[in-house]
Amino acid sequence: MSTTKKITAGAAAVAVGALTLTACGGSGGTDDGARSKTVTLVSHDSFAASDAVLKAFTEETGYTVKVLKSGDAVEAVNKAVLTKGAPQGDVFFGVDNTTLSRALDNGLFEPYAAKGLDRVGEAFRLDGDRHRVTPVDYGDICVNYDKKYFADRKLAPPRTFDDLAEPAYKDLLVVENPERSSPGLGFLLGTAAAYGDGGASRPGGGGWQGYWKKLKDNGVKVVDSWEIAYNQEFSGSAGGRKAKADRPLVVSYASSPPVEVLYGDPRPAEAPTGVAEGTCYRQIEFAGLLEGAANEEGGKALLDFLVGKRFQEDMPLNMFVHPVSEDARLPELFTRHGVVIDKPLTMAPEKIAANRDQWIQSWSSLVLK
Amino acid sequence: MRGALVLLPAAFFAVFFAYPVATIVGRGLRTDAGWRPGRLGEVLARPEVLDVLWFTTWQALASTALTLLVALPGAYVFARFDFPGKQALRAVVTVPFVLPTVVVGTAFLALLGRGGLLDGLWGVRLDTTVWAILLAHVFFNYAVVVRTVGGLWAQLDPRQEEAARVLGASRLTAWRRVTLPALGPAVAAAALMVFLFTYTSFGVVVILGGPAYRTLEAEIYRQTAQLLDLPTAAVLTLVQFAAAAAVLAVHARTVRRRETALRLVDPAGTAHRPRGAGQWALLGGVLASIALLLVLPLGVLVARSLDASGGLGFYRALRSAEASGGTFVVPPLEAVRNSLEFAFAATAIAVTVGGLAAAALTRRAGRLVRGFDALLMLPLGVSAVTVGFGFLVALDEPPLDLRSSWILVPLAQALVGVPFVVRTMLPVLRAVDVRLREAAAVLGASPLRAWREVDLPMVRRALFVAAGFAFAVSLGEFGATVFIARADHPTLPVAVARLLGRPGELNYGQAMALSTILMAVCAVALLLLERVRTDRKGEF
């Protein structure tokens, strides 16, 4: 601790003391007394689990889970990198293949082989036998379509990336900006996996750059977040219908149609949206024990729990992702209204790490300018 | 004595603003090999950075001018006219202030976008134009002008202007020579706050402008949170900082010369029913502009929250959230309670810190104190992203490891609330005639007693206005709170954002319903504040 830090800390103690007196107590509370009995999970804003399931964990292990939500997926990982050594919690959940290299290269995680990992398929275990991260779930980022729009016009919905560049689908697609949105980035990586890197020097040539040029000529619309794309621009969503949205194609998730059913008002017999199965890019999400965790034992127990059957079966209806454990069964909603993506596009984390920033930059000058 | 008053505000700003910001900027500009000031030049040489700086500045200037143009007549009407529903309307114009930007975006698109009102009437669409950004800034900041300027205006003695008229001045001359100089500091304060708010605008620009428009704040977010490019983010923060400091310096210089003691009177005695065609037309015009710019977008949200099968379906769905459990959806009552608890805490902190600072700054003093005055405004002009990430890396050791504590949320909100408290109270405090205090002292009152008996009664109104702002700032989750990790006490805006992050009609509808509840909570809270304030009549 440097001297400046000491001085500021001293001044802070005075300020904090005075402030806590003025602030009315009430919410929250201290966990000092039971520190070792609390395990803190740091995650992104989309983390969700049933209360009953978290309670079951407490009953099994004696640990109470405290969840800290730390922004969107990329932001949460970057915050974890910034606080390396003095982490905000014990376990981090929400590293995906896009951010995996950044997390591992920064030495964010302590190795731990979670119990139950043997029930997780080889394809999900991207860190092999080093066990720095534990796969927890997967999902696919795909173009969704508004069924009614295409039925009304007797037009077949698009199925592949190539279709999206066809004149029949001109001015119909809205995507998220990969600079700011993780589904947007997933879609860009999907096109890069499908078409390869054409190189920045040959705009209009091959590769994903050439493909995006065609998409741009075909009137693709770019917005900044999934919320705007889905709720405001996409004609197949509730918000879109009310805003008279005119884009029947949107980059979203393979699980969005079943969720539309689940939260329909009233619940429809069939999903109002469908998935263009040839456009799907697979995302795997991982959890890991943070280096410098205050409660290492609790963290390990939580990792065991995250790949256990109970949590795995709870995830689909909370976070709308698929379980990685072979023991877990999908809820009926998913088997009935969801689609199984047999051949999703994938990309190795190392390749993503080597190219991501540069690709985003050339995408931006190609599409936004 | 007065030095002691400054201590708490100074410590507050040192620990929760200067230290975190310096730490994160330092991380960006320092390598193991030492400081790298050269990075400044490298980043500033990029043409896109200059583009962003230029756009940020001119849109903020234009937004400020437009807001003053639209809201100053409103401030006059609220200060001088009596009309039915005035109190309720004054609460309503503050409601936009607390709404999450993503919700406001939705409402504004219904007005300006495809199939919106303008589109329907004249086939005009303003979405993804700079007009949408400017109008949304007026929508957000209308209350800043009405409350800051109107608060003082209502306390100005109208007889002074009348005296000028009697002495032969034309209506315009009387206003220009008597009222305007008296109002100057309050107008400047409002303009300053609107400028700083729009200068650091982020959500509105991103949602309504689309990817083509970028402010410095949006760019700092991208560099920090998404790309983890701390050097670039640090340079951009310094640029933003320098610009804000320059504006504050200009403000301090121009205002200093204009502040004089004013004759303040009970606001209840200055307002009257409009007289003559001119005044009625003014009232009508102001009400029409409020209806169009503020009430209509709010109405869209309410309408959408009711657009369910069976009318109140979305509100009923909110109630059943209690039954379904899960850490995602929050029972609305719990979210309301969380919001109110945070808001009370943040208001208490902001009023304490800001009130002490304002009391210390009342009398004209040396350069140091003046510098402190400007310093207190800086949190409005410095990136919330930088402050939030600064908390993360700076407050990481005991006794300051507040990162997972609930108190960090109201502290971060108070950081934005304090400037409002200072700016609302200071013009009034400085307008108190110093001879009144001297008289009290001569009669044997201690400084504390003189303050209680002389200053406090006169600033009580300003104090409630200030508290209202601090409360609204907290309810609306301003500032760095968006960027700090939250333990699970979701407030209304947080719950709205969560619902909008999921597909499905019920989620969307519930988000609209919760937004409506947020509006109602804000309006009711402000109405209650108004009630407390006007119950104490005859305080002069």
UniProtKB/TrEMBL annotation, chain A:
<dbReference type="GO" id="GO:0015888">
    <property type="term" value="P:thiamine transport"/>
</dbReference>
<dbReference type="GO" id="GO:0030976">
    <property type="term" value="F:thiamine pyrophosphate binding"/>
</dbReference>
<dbReference type="InterPro" id="IPR005948">
    <property type="entry name" value="ThiB-like"/>
</dbReference>
<keyword id="KW-0732">Signal</keyword>
<dbReference type="InterPro" id="IPR006059">
    <property type="entry name" value="SBP"/>
</dbReference>
<protein>
    <submittedName>
        <fullName>Thiamine ABC transporter substrate-binding protein</fullName>
    </submittedName>
</protein>
<feature type="signal peptide">
    <location>
        <begin position="1"/>
        <end position="23"/>
    </location>
</feature>
<dbReference type="GO" id="GO:0030975">
    <property type="term" value="F:thiamine binding"/>
</dbReference>
<dbReference type="GO" id="GO:0030288">
    <property type="term" value="C:outer membrane-bounded periplasmic space"/>
</dbReference>
<dbReference type="Pfam" id="PF13416">
    <property type="entry name" value="SBP_bac_8"/>
</dbReference>
UniProtKB/TrEMBL annotation, chain B:
<feature type="transmembrane region" description="Helical">
    <location>
        <begin position="342"/>
        <end position="362"/>
    </location>
</feature>
<keyword id="KW-0812">Transmembrane</keyword>
<feature type="domain" description="ABC transmembrane type-1">
    <location>
        <begin position="53"/>
        <end position="249"/>
    </location>
</feature>
<dbReference type="InterPro" id="IPR035906">
    <property type="entry name" value="MetI-like_sf"/>
</dbReference>
<dbReference type="Pfam" id="PF00528">
    <property type="entry name" value="BPD_transp_1"/>
</dbReference>
<feature type="domain" description="ABC transmembrane type-1">
    <location>
        <begin position="336"/>
        <end position="529"/>
    </location>
</feature>
<feature type="transmembrane region" description="Helical">
    <location>
        <begin position="91"/>
        <end position="111"/>
    </location>
</feature>
<feature type="transmembrane region" description="Helical">
    <location>
        <begin position="374"/>
        <end position="395"/>
    </location>
</feature>
<keyword id="KW-1133">Transmembrane helix</keyword>
<feature type="transmembrane region" description="Helical">
    <location>
        <begin position="131"/>
        <end position="150"/>
    </location>
</feature>
<keyword id="KW-1003">Cell membrane</keyword>
<dbReference type="GO" id="GO:0005886">
    <property type="term" value="C:plasma membrane"/>
</dbReference>
<keyword id="KW-0997">Cell inner membrane</keyword>
<feature type="transmembrane region" description="Helical">
    <location>
        <begin position="462"/>
        <end position="487"/>
    </location>
</feature>
<feature type="transmembrane region" description="Helical">
    <location>
        <begin position="58"/>
        <end position="79"/>
    </location>
</feature>
<dbReference type="GO" id="GO:0055085">
    <property type="term" value="P:transmembrane transport"/>
</dbReference>
<dbReference type="InterPro" id="IPR000515">
    <property type="entry name" value="MetI-like"/>
</dbReference>
<keyword id="KW-0472">Membrane</keyword>
<feature type="transmembrane region" description="Helical">
    <location>
        <begin position="186"/>
        <end position="210"/>
    </location>
</feature>
<feature type="transmembrane region" description="Helical">
    <location>
        <begin position="280"/>
        <end position="303"/>
    </location>
</feature>
<feature type="transmembrane region" description="Helical">
    <location>
        <begin position="407"/>
        <end position="426"/>
    </location>
</feature>
<feature type="transmembrane region" description="Helical">
    <location>
        <begin position="507"/>
        <end position="529"/>
    </location>
</feature>
